[in-house]
Amino acid sequence: MDTPTQFFRSILLALAGNRAVEALALKYGLKLGASQFVAGESLEEALEQVRLLNAKGILTTLDHLGEGIRQLSEAAVYKDEYIKLLHHIRATGAYANVSLKPTQLGLALDPEAAYTHIREIVTHAKSFGNFVRMDMENSPYTDATIQIMKRLHTEGLSNVGTVIQAYLYRSEEDIHLLTEEGFNLRLVKGAYKEAKSIAYPKLSEVDENFKRIIAHRLRSTIYTGVATHDEKIIEWVKSFVKQERISRSTYEFQMLYGIRMPLQERLAREGYTVRCYVPYGRMWYPYFVRRLAERPANMWFLVKNMIKR
């Protein structure tokens, strides 16, 4: 039986795909509190936040929000935006790489066209000495995303990695195979609604699997992003790397813009590499709903802003 928190999360994630709710949210959401988690609608606004974060010793990854496009022509627009973003990162000297979602580049509509778009972005990034992270979306796209990464590497584009989600049963095996091949990975708990047949239903089980895959990656010394706001997991990582004598140069902590910012700053002051995921753009609604679903406290933050107004 679902707990109240799990039920609340399921309701919110169901709303993530509701077009009518999305239209209403896009009209008022940033004014009511979504700006807590989204750096702005424009690239210029996002780069200003990157500048402020960099000044505190925090690295960033920029994500131009958008997913689940309906027409392939939209993918070409997003591709151009990412190339523009890479040019601006280079021009401003920002300490930033980029993150993108494969469905944003057309994966659900035309996988080969999506690959061509992603390849062009990764090629530009390589010419600038930059890195591209392909975000992992819900389970129908897990295999395809991993295969895109592998294919790009075979073409000499090794400046690209992806994400593994600890709540999927398959992830421990994926970690072993992808680590053997030397891929740069970000590890997360997972933020999509998945069936119990393919994903751990209990948060305690997700946490244990998260620790298992983190331990395997850190022992491998292949560069890894440990993406979590869970301070218990962070303290466990700090203890684990000390015990195993693992260099801080082989991993980084990653967190989201607007969440646990004092913790991000403290870790950076302690000498850990910290990277903040900075999302921006007009199509922020699905991303925002997942942030609300992750922690009920995020929803109460939004409600309080609505009451104030």
Describe this structure in words.
The protein is α/β, with parallel strands linked by helices. It has a single domain, classed as Alpha-Beta Barrel (TIM Barrel), CATH 3.20.20.220. Helices cover about 55% and strands about 15% of the residues. It has twelve helices and eight strands. It has helices at about 5-15, 20-30, 45-55, 70-90, 110-125, 140-155, 170-180, 205-220, 230-245, 260-270, 285-295, 295-309, and strands spanning about 60-65, 95-100, 130-135, 160-165, 185-190, 225, 250-255, 275-280. The chain has an eight-stranded parallel beta barrel with strand order 1-2-3-4-5-6-7-8, surrounded by seven helices. Strand 3, helix 6 and strand 4 form a beta-alpha-beta unit. Helix 4 (about 70-90) runs parallel beside helix 5. The longest helix has 21 residues, at about 70-90. Residues about 300-309 have low confidence and may be disordered. Keywords: FAD, Flavoprotein, Nucleotide-binding, Oxidoreductase, Proline metabolism. It is an enzyme of class 1 (oxidoreductase). Its EC number is 1.5.5.2.
